[in-house]
Structure formats: structure tokens, C-alpha cells
């Protein structure tokens, strides 16, 4: 399998869609990580942390989000589809791993999705023991003028599937040259997206709005890691929002030299080890 999965599976998502699931699991897992990937990526991107956690008795399952499965241009009907599908995915995980504690892991847009789930769909679910967030996409690091935002709203109504011009940033996701090469290979093969639609961009912007005011109401244990040299997500804004979570629930790290993908960075195994110690506590 392309990303060293132990198996591939699928589950029935909203509107009858089948979502592909990447599964890495030890023979007798003691916990399971429900992983949500970032924008323009795919579930296979979790291969590096998943293989590490598998060695420590923890399974990782990640599904390809709506609009992302073998897609060169990402488009979604609305942000709600991520939340609704993830709620259905959690039910699938519980069936596959009955009685095991579940940890929700999200990177970038996946962390934005996981945050909404922690404040909503997953808030009162006792199976979920905690959340692990990397470089949450709460605020865009590339500032957009109010005029362009207004135009995006108009275009979203008139031409929702229109391509949004994006600066190439694949080379600034991680300092690991081998993982960067894998990203480029995925882009060439159409596994990893290189374009987004206006509707997709508008959906993310809308999902960011008002989130800061809700963060003090967070109720689950949270391990969060922010990349100090992030070119995509605003690190300072993410830090401020995360620090508003009740202090007894938050374990927080900031790595000044990391690019966006903490779980794929050169210091990743130190981060993994800290996450494992947090889980074991």
C-alpha cells in the first residue's frame, strides 16, 4: 500500500458517499487516534506519525475528507460536511475498536475541524479522552485585503467552483527533504491537491469566524503544538486562542524553527514522545 497502511477500509459518509480510510494498527491496540488531515492533503499523510505510534501500541485511522480523495482541485458543499462526516467516522471507529479510548488528532485545517468537533459534535462523548492539534488553521498567515475578501464572497455566489490563485508553498511545509519529495510526488500523481475553489476558501474563512470567543468553553484534555515559522497558519493567533483554553486542560508547545507540518518535521519524534507521555498520563 502506498503509505505503509496495514489495511484500507471505507465508511458510509453523508449523502451515501464512501470515504476511504487509511489504517495503521498494532496486533492488539490499547488506544486509537482518529486523525483528520489538513487542507489539500489526504489521510495517507499521517503515515509518519502513525507508524511511530503503531510501535507503541496505538492504532491510527485517517479518512480522506470530502473533496480531497484523488482530487487536484478541492471543492466542498460547505464546512458542515467535515463535521457531519467526522461524526459518522467516529461511530465507525467505535465499531472497529470497541471500548478503546479515542484521541482526536488534527493538523492545520484538520485541527480547525477537530476544534469545532471538540466544541460541538464530540464535546460530550465519553469515548474521546482528548484532542491533539498541530498548527491549527485558525487565522491565515497570508493576509488578505478586505476588498479581496468581499470579491471572494461575490465570486462564491456567482462562480463557486472557480479556481483560487495560490502561491506554491509545498517546499515550506517541512524541513525534511524526503517528505517534501513525497508531497511533490503526490501532487504529480493527483493524490494531493494543488488547487482550491472559491467555495472551499470561503467555507474555511467562515469556519474561522467567532471561534476565538468559544475557546474558553473547551472541556476536553488538549495537547497543542504550534510551528513558529509557519507560512500558512498564523502562529501568534493560534497561540492566543489556545491559551484561552482552561489551563488545567491544556498542554502546549511552540517550536520556533518548525515549518507548518510539526508531525513531519525534523524534531517530530520528540513531539511524538511528548504526545505519548501525555496519553499515558
Describe this structure in words.
The chain has a single domain, classed as Rossmann fold, CATH 3.40.50. The protein is 35% helix and 20% strand. The chain has an eight-stranded mixed β-sheet, with helices on both faces. Helix 2 packs across helix 3 and helix 4 crosses helix 6. The radius of gyration is 18 Å and the shape is globular. The model has no long low-confidence stretch (mean pLDDT 94).
CATH topology: Rossmann fold
Please provide the ordered H/E string of secondary-structure elements: EEEHEEHEHEHEHEHHEHEH
Strand content: 15-25%
Computed CA radius of gyration, to the nearest angstrom: 18 Å
Q: What is the name of the CATH class?
A: Alpha Beta
List descriptors.
Rossmann fold, 281 residues, 3-stranded mixed sheet
Q: Topology, pairings included?
A:
Blueprint (H helix, E strand, L loop, with lengths): L6 E6 L5 E7 L6 E6 L10 H8 L3 E6 L9 E2 L5 H17 L5 E6 L1 H11 L8 E7 L11 H13 L4 E2 L12 H12 L6 E3 H11 L2 H4 L7 E6 L7 H8 L7 E6 L12 H13 L1
Parallel strand pairs: 3-4, 3-6, 5-9, 6-7, 7-10, 10-11
Antiparallel strand pairs: 1-2, 2-4, 8-9
Helix pairs in contact: 2-3, 4-6
Amino acid at each position: 500500500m502506498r503509505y505503509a497502511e496495514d489495511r484500507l477500509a471505507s465508511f458510509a459518509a453523508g449523502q451515501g458517499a464512501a470515504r476511504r480510510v487509511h489504517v495503521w494498527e498494532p496486533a492488539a491496540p490499547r488506544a486509537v487516534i482518529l486523525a483528520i488531515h489538513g487542507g489539500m492533503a489526504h489521510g495517507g499523510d499521517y503515515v509518519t506519525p502513525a507508524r511511530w505510534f503503531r510501535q507503541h501500541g496505538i492504532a491510527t485511522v485517517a479518512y480522506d475528507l470530502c473533496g480531497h480523495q484523488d482530487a487536484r482541485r478541492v471543492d466542498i458543499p460547505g464546512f458542515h460536511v467535515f463535521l457531519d462526516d467526522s461524526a459518522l467516522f467516529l461511530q465507525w471507529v467505535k465499531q472497529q475498536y470497541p471500548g478503546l479510548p479515542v484521541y482526536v488528532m488534527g493538523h492545520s485545517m484538520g485541527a480547525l475541524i477537530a476544534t469545532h468537533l471538540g466544541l460541538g459534535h464530540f464535546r460530550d462523548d465519553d469515548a474521546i479522552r482528548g484532542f491533539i492539534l498541530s498548527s491549527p488553521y485558525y487565522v491565515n498567515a497570508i493576509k488578505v485585503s478586505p476588498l479581496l475578501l468581499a470579491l471572494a464572497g461575490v465570486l462564491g455566489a456567482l462562480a463557486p467552483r472557480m479556481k483560487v490563485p495560490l502561491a506554491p508553498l509545498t517546499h515550506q511545509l517541512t524541513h525534511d527533504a524526503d517528505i517534501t519529495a513525497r508531497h511533490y510526488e503526490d501532487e504529480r500523481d493527483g493524490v494531493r491537491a494543488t488547487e482550491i475553489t472559491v467555495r472551499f476558501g470561503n467555507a474555511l474563512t467562515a469556519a474561522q469566524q467567532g471561534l476565538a470567543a468559544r475557546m474558553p468553553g473547551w472541556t476536553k484534555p488538549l495537547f497543542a503544538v504550534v510551528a513558529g515559522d509557519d507560512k500558512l497558519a498564523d502562529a501568534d493567533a493560534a497561540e492566543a486562542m489556545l491559551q484561552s483554553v482552561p489551563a488545567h486542560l491544556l498542554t502546549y508547545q511552540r517550536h520556533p524553527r518548525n515549518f507548518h507540518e510539526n508531525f513531519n518535521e525534523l524534531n517530530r519524534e520528540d513531539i511524538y514522545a511528548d504526545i505519548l507521555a501525555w496519553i499515558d498520563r
